[in-house]
């Protein structure tokens, strides 16, 4: 290697070499070296971010996976796999698609329009065919339905009715909708301590996150000249970050979290930062286990390297901003310590925050807010083209036309609840979650709580070799609970809502019974055990799970 270096450094040798080459050969050689150098730099950055051990493990896993995929092409094996997938498809369709001769199917437009009475009756009939529509009101859910009460629902419906045909794409036609959207963003900015900031509404947390990624990609390209952007994301961050990165062609470095605290490994984050990094991500709180990343330290890194820091508060939404006022941000409860670290725009380095109004803000589904430290950064979120033959086209987010009724419903919900209503809701929901967490820690020795979740989510895993926590989840399903299964580690979580409040004792009793059932008589056939066991069984397991998930999505559109 040293002799090659000496040769390349000798100008006479290099000059004589170039003289013997045609311009075409010289260009081809230069292109070859350019390719080698750029790919080597990418490889070095990848290894630096992942670490040598993880890089070797990833390489081995990838190789092993390719061998298994080749084995799956053997006709006999392929036939067996296809039979299993067909069975899974039938199971999914059996659960989602109503069957029988009495099921009405509306596959074409009716020849004549139906009356309102007929439409309501048909909706009631469909609810009966597919199961009782009121099940969610029984409260045995993890998140999913963020119900602010029947009175609030009536307020939202009244707002819907008033602004049914409205569309913020036409602010001159619907000025009240424009005003309400601006006020919703303003209220959220003040809630997150940035009254001089900027933001927009979106259709949900995923769009808020995708818009943030788009914003940083365009900002980095314009301001820093970055054309191959990369972002650094905790393993516990929402999957929407991977989705947005796939859409926007941004490379993701997934960073592991501490197995005890569940916070992202800061040392690994620091190591992963390079000249192409455009964005760091932190959660307050994350979806899987409800814990919070160290936003202060992430902010210091972002400020030092002049890159973005997005804090995902989609789930924390209208809970975490009120924890401090509720007296629940720092303290001890039932022997467990709970502490919410600074997370909002008061933290140096935080440049954007996403907040779902349709979760603990109790607004109608399909509403979220993406906030930026200043309007200059928000400009990179916009799409504008002055060249369309239809005129100048400009939109603040992915959608062009948007339902103004949702904006009106969100504004109405926030006005109805007020700070006092959200404070009361925060206090009750967090107290409920901590009751569950403390009971698991102190009274269910087979289980443990992941980290120290400060807000509304509690995730629990098994510390007993005799108990499969996904068996526990399946046993809870038989008792009517709809909980979320997790992997890495295997766990189950509940996101407490106002619907959970009257059922906290029932949840604890059912959980204790389910642990004993999983311990003494595991079935091995439940949905969680089957699906998530498959996902972890081999390197091709995730591919099989993805295929099942694709079947599920296909079935959603089977009339």
TrEMBL record:
GO terms, molecular function: pyridoxal phosphate binding; sphinganine-1-phosphate aldolase activity; transferase activity
One BP term from GO: carboxylic acid metabolic process
Gene3D superfamilies for the chain: 6.10.140.2150, Aspartate Aminotransferase, domain 1, Type I PLP-dependent aspartate aminotransferase-like (Major domain)
GO cellular component, one term: endoplasmic reticulum membrane
Pfam families according to UniProt: Pyridoxal_deC (PF00282)
SUPFAM superfamilies registered for this protein in UniProt: PLP-dependent transferases (SSF53383)
Cell compartments where the protein resides: Endoplasmic reticulum membrane
UniProt EC number: 4.1.2.27
InterPro entries in UniProt: GrpII_AminoAcid_Decarb, PyrdxlP-dep_de-COase, PyrdxlP-dep_Trfase, PyrdxlP-dep_Trfase_major, PyrdxlP-dep_Trfase_small
EC class (word): lyase
Membrane topology: Single-pass membrane protein
Family under the similarity heading: Belongs to the group II decarboxylase family. Sphingosine-1-phosphate lyase subfamily.
Name of the featured protein: sphinganine-1-phosphate aldolase
Biological source species: Suillus fuscotomentosus
Top-level taxonomy: Eukaryota, Fungi, Dikarya, Basidiomycota, Agaricomycotina
């Amino acid at each position: 290697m040293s002799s090659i270096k000496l040769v390349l450094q000798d100008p006479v040798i290099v000059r004589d070499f170039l003289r013997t080459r045609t311009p075409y050969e010289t260009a081809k050689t230069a292109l070859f070296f350019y390719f080698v150098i750029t790919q080597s730099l990418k490889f070095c950055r990848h290894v630096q971010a992942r670490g040598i051990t993880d890089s070797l493990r990833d390489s081995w896993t990838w190789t092993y996976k390719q061998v298994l995929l080749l084995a799956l092409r053997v006709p006999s094996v392929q036939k067996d796999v296809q039979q299993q997938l067909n069975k899974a498809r039938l199971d999914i369709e059996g659960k989602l698609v109503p069957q029988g001769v009495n099921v009405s199917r509306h596959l074409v437009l009716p020849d004549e329009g139906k009356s309102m009475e007929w439409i309501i009756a048909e909706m009631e009939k469909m609810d009966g065919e597919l199961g009782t529509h009121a099940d969610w009101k029984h409260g045995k859910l993890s998140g999913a339905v963020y119900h602010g009460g029947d009175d609030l629902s009536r307020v939202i419906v009244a707002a819907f009715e008033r602004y049914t045909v409205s569309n913020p794409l036409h602010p001159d036609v619907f000025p009240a909708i424009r005003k309400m959207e601006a006020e919703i963003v303003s209220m959220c900015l003040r809630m997150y301590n940035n009254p001089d900031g900027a933001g927009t509404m979106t259709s949900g947390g995923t769009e808020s996150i995708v818009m943030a990624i788009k914003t940083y990609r365009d900002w980095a390209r314009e301001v820093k000249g970055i054309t191959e952007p990369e972002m650094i994301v905790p393993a516990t961050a929402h999957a929407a970050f991977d989705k947005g990165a796939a859409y926007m062609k941004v490379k993701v470095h997934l960073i592991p979290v501490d197995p005890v605290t569940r916070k992202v490994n800061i040392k690994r984050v620091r190591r992963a930062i390079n000249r192409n990094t455009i964005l760091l991500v932190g959660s307050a709180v994350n979806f899987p286990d409800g814990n919070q990343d160290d936003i202060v330290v992430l902010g210091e890194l972002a400020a030092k390297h002049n890159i973005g820091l997005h804090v995902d508060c989609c789930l924390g939404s209208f809970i975490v901003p009120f924890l401090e006022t509720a007296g629940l941000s720092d303290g001890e409860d039932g022997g467990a310590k709970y502490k919410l670290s600074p997370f909002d725009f008061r933290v140096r380095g935080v440049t954007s925050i996403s907040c779902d109004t349709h979760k603990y803000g109790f607004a109608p589904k399909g509403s979220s807010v993406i906030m930026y430290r200043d309007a200059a950064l928000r400009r990179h979120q916009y799409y504008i083209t002055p060249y369309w033959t239809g005129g100048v086209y400009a939109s603040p987010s992915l959608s062009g036309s948007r339902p103004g009724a949702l904006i009106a419903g969100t504004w109405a919900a926030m006005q109805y609840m007020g700070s006092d209503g959200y404070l009361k809701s925060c206090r009750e929901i967090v107290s409920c979650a901590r009751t569950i967490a403390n009971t698991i820690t102190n009274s269910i020795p087979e289980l443990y709580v992941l980290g120290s979740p400060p807000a509304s989510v509690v995730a629990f895993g098994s510390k007993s070799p005799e108990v499969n926590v996904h068996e526990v989840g399946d046993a809870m399903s038989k008792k009517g609970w709809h909980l979320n299964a997790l992997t890495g580690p295997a766990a189950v979580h509940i996101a407490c809502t106002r619907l959970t409040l009257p059922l906290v004792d029932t949840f604890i009793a059912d959980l204790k019974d389910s642990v004993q059932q999983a311990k003494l008589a595991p079935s091995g056939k439940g949905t969680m055990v089957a699906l998530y066991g498959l996902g972890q069984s081999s390197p091709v397991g995730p591919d099989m799970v993805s295929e099942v998930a694709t079947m599920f999505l296909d079935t959603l559109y089977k009339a």
